[in-house]
Amino acid sequence: xxxxxxxxxxxxxxxxxxxxxxxxxxxxxxxRMVADIIIHVSILGxxxxxxxxxxxxxxxxxxGHAMFFASGAYGFGLMMQSGGFSIPFxxxxxxxxxxxxxxxxxxxxxxTREIYFAFLTLAIQMLFYSSLLSWVDLTGGDQGLxxxxxxxxxxxxxxxxxxxxxxFILFVSIVSLGVLWHITKTPFGYTLRMIRDNAxxxxxxxxxxxxxxxxxxxxxxxxxxxxxxxxxVYVSAAYPNFGYWTMSGEAIFMIMLGGLNSFLGxxxxxxxxxxxxxxxTAYTELYGLVLGTIILIYVLVLRQGLLDMVLxxxxxxxSRLRTSxxxxxxxxxxxxx
Length: 337
What we know:
The protein has helices spanning 7-29, 32-55, 66-82, 87-109, 114-134, 136-139, 162-184, 187-197, 199-204, 209-235, 245-258, 265-283, 287-302, 306-325, 328-335. The protein is mainly alpha-helical. It is globular, with a radius of gyration of 22 Å.
């Protein structure tokens, strides 16, 4: 009898499988456009999944999540422009700085509840955005961190090479998603679901709900900062709109489009929104009108995320198959329970 693999090993296997499949398929197509779309989906998908750690798993709606996407991008960009930093070190350090910021912001915002939490995160994000615009000497103001920066090679990886850049961003995105997925499968992740469903009952068990929420806030913000740093690597710049409220709104759109009840739902939503953006801008100048209409019809018809709907139907089908395989007496017994 085979021994069941631990969750960490399963996560590692999925990470390797995802990297090989996506990287291999892109290499086979040899299309620069396909590679660009996958990069955008990977970065924005990681950003949306990180927000769903708060929304879908913890029950906290944050309208200020883009602040940490921007802090990761600006922190990484400033370190690379100053020189003397390797890319992996700058990536990790920008994540740690964002984690420290999120610890303070989360502590303040979690003093409130529900809708007040959402609007307080939005207010702090707009203060951060205003700082990006006004602190011209450091951030470049409304022009952002432009001018590019050197990308020194490390461990045989040269990000000046487009193939290396694609594989690096894809690898870091998949590893980050793997870490988040593993967290949701730990006792900590299941406790977050309990808090989402009934925080009062969790408090009755003697657990400190605010500590769990704060930990989830820091984890989600740190993952968002990694996504921001990867975007900075990709475009060799950081812009104020990374920290604008519309960026947080896009992440919420992605969650709604893909589904908030499944881990990869936001990633599916990111793919949908990215492809819609690519398709609509290619065929019409009425971008906002067409995209808004499509999303409106999508929401009214499906009334749930795409992946949530697919998985829901699959579970119903599996349940019917299991029921059909039971003996007639067992089916009758289940019916009259």
